Amino acid sequence: MNAGPPSARAGDPAGFAPPPYPYDRLSRMRAEAVERFGDAVGPGGSGGVVDCSIGTPCDPPPVPVLDAMAHSGTERGYPTSPGSPAYRAAAAGWLQRRFGVSVDPGRELAACVGTKEFVASVAQYLHLRNPARDTVLYPAVSYPTYAMGATLGGCRSVPVRELAQGGPDLGSIDRSDLDRALLLWMNSPSNPTGLLTDLEAVARWGRQHGIPVFSDECYAEFTWVGPPATVLASGVDGVVAVHSLSKRSNLAGVRAGFYAGDPDLVGYLLDVRRHAGLMVPGPVQAGAVVAFDDDDHVIDQRRRYEDRLEYLRDALGIVGLPTPMPAGGFYLWVPVPAGMAGGGWELAEALALEAGLLVSPGDLYGPDGAGFVRVAVVQPMERLQLMTDRLSRGALVERLDRQGSR
User: Fold this and answer.
1) Residue 306 has pLDDT above 70, yes or no
2) Where are the domains of the chain?
3) How far, rounded to the nearest angstrom, does the alpha carbon of residue 24 sit from its chain's CA centroid?
């Protein structure tokens, strides 16, 4: 449990001191890999480090989206904080097509500037509304911003351990934490594990306990086992779904998303966010309408990610790192071999120095992830093939053999 903000640095006044940004902790490893493999990507994708540490899309966004942003004519005026009527209608239309759920775009849906800022700010805004509740529940292995959002809002963050099949072990939550719970965060498909959650069961639990459930569903388009799911499928009471174009449409750089669900929660958050000046830029809103209305480019992107997952899963298995395919998302959650006492950091270093493959140690997503590394299959196939060519030279295999890992 994180009971409060990190300690202040020596010499600073007592209070909050931001911890190191999680991915900045990879800087030394990155530098050593660059020293060995270079930092230049040559013709045909040869040379340099293959960076699979962060889920940054590398594939092109749809050209019509870029055209819409370039010619929107909305640059001069202030955009609306809730999103334009067209933006909200397009997002609601996508929810209807993809999940079969209907929301009122005027009362139950609003825009956000990407979704990270939303995740990071929700606890603060809800705590202002209900100071008696000060605890954010979130998955024990998860995106770090759920816990950081609690800290930034002056709240407690309490991790909830994950069931083996996916989803939270809700029965493990202490009664005192339930009584103080401000909200519960869910993430399905999970980043980083790829596991799926029974969102209907979690929504039912939230309603029974009077705890709002916020469901981060930004990887829903990349669900490989069964159809994509949303917490809104059982109704909007007490729940909010959060979606983004960053992954779905390779538009991480434009920062466009939305939240939808309970009209009381959506309406309150919208009112607060207006005062904070949180607005998706007008040209981005115009492009987002085109992106939400088009499903064909997402089908193409699904195929790319599934091919890469299968390819890299097989390549890692050959060198002694058997890895399951995820049920969703575009990450491989790779178990650390038993002989590696240094856990995810030791395996990440071995992959960086022996194959030029940069990955994320699992404890960046919580202490329970220490026995894993996360590999984001965001690089194009020719870059992944370069990395597997290096693996095939045997240096990593020899290293695993020396440590008794194989």
Assistant:
1) yes
2) 22-60+297-402, 73-293
3) 17
pLDDT attached to residue 45? 44
pLDDT digits (tens, 9 = 90+) for 112-164: 999 999 999 999 999 999 999 999 999 999 999 999 999 999 999 999 999 99
Of 19-23, 103-107, 323-327, the poorest mean pLDDT is in: 19-23
73-293 and 22-60+297-402 share a CATH fold: no
Say which residue the tokens 């919580």 belong to. 366
- Residue 157 has, within 13 A of its CA and on its CB side, a CA count of 27
Interatomic CA distance for residues 25 and 28, integer angstroms: 7
Which of 311, 406, 399, 296 lies closest to 353 in space, CA to CA? 399
CB atoms under 10 Å from CB of 160, counted, come to 21
Pairwise CA distance, residues 152 & 155, whole Å: 7
May I ask the CATH class of domain 22-60+297-402?
alpha beta
- Amino acid code (one letter) for 81: S
Please tell me the pTM assigned to this model: 0.92
Could you say which architecture CATH assigns to the domain 73-293?
3-Layer(aba) Sandwich (3.40)
Write the pLDDT tens digit of every residue in 58-112. Answer: 999 999 999 999 999 999 999 999 999 999 999 999 999 999 999 999 999 999 9
- SS3 sequence of the chain: CECCCCCCCCCCCCCCCCCCCHHHHHHHHHHHHHHHHCCCCCHHHCCCCEECCCCCCCCCCCHHHHHHHHCCCCCCCCCCCCCCHHHHHHHHHHHHHHHCCCCCCCCCEEEECCCHHHHHHHHHHHHHHCCCCCEEEEECCCCCHHHHHHHHCCCEEEEECECCCCCECHHHCCHHHHHHEEEEEEECCCCCCCCCCCHHHHHHHHHHHCCCEEEECCCHHHECCCCCCCHHHHCCCCEEEEEEHHHHCCCCCCCCEEEEECHHHHHHHHHHHHHHCCCCCHHHHHHHHHHHHCCHHHHHHHHHHHHHHHHHHHHHHHCCCCCCCCCECCEEEEECCCCCCCHHHHHHHHHHHHHCEECEEHHHHCHHHCCEEEEECCCCHHHHHHHHHHHHCCHHHHHHHHCCCC
256 neighbors 245 (Cβ within 8 angstroms): yes
Longest dimension (CA), the chain: 64
Q: How far apart are the first and last CA of the chain?
A: 35
